[in-house]
Amino acid sequence: MIEEILDYNKNFVEEKKYEAYKTTKYPDKKLAILTCMDTRLIELLPAALGIRNGDAKIIKNAGGVISHPYGSVVRSLLVAILELGVDTVMVIAHTDCGVQQMDSGRMLAELKVRGVSEETLEGLHRDGVDYSSWLRGFSSPEESVRESVACLKEHPLIPKDVVICGFVMDSVTGELAEVR
Question: CB–CB of 35/92 below 8 Å?
Fold first, then answer.
């Protein structure tokens, strides 16, 4: 698979196909979007929102959640706000998310099946990894969005003039429903 990707990339560069995507590092719409890494959203989300290359900063992770108030998601948003001019943040979860109902106990069991030792898991737990929090899912995408939006609105480092709002996207149609 990697060789196939590298061959494609070489051709992409040689044929200067990148020229259609030229833009700056500053988002034209001053927008950042926190969303899920779900494969269905790769093209659907930008198409459904009418955003194009260069319009927005898009931060993706499993579930589109903020799992730690001082983790990489908030760090990325602070860079977007303070260094790149973002003034609006959209948190967008989606229907039929794989993180919904995710179970930390089941994930730990799978890690053991895949060769991670009990000793390693226990050592990380002793060092402060809270698996039940870090690997937890959520009961509904609306709940997840409410929690992430609240985290950002209450965050001491997020400027209060930044507009923060939340939505759930239908993973088939792209329809957005605001979460209040």
Answer: yes
Can you read off the two tokens belonging to residue 148?
A: 């992430």
Q: Specify the pLDDT at position 33.
A: 98
Write out the DSSP string of 161-176. Answer: TSEEEEEEE-TTT--E
Partnered with residue 179 across adjacent β-strands are 166
* Distance separating alpha carbons of residues 87 and 82, to the nearest angstrom: 9
Vertex 97, ends 153 and 120: CA angle to 5°?
A: 85
* Amino acid, single-letter form, for residue 164: I
CB 84 within 8 Å of CB 59:
no
Task: Mark 55-76 as b/e (b = at least 16 C-beta within 10 Å).
Answer: bbbbbbbebbbbbeeeeebbeb
pLDDT of 3 above 90: yes
Backbone phi, then psi, for 135, in 5-degree steps?
A: -105, 15
Contact 66, 34 (CB under 8 A): yes
Residue 34: pLDDT band by 50, 70, 90 thresholds?
very high
Of 51, 21, 15, the residue nearest 35 (C-alpha): 51
CB atoms within 10 A of CB 37: 14
Question: Per DSSP, what are the bridge partners of residue 89?
Answer: 32, 164
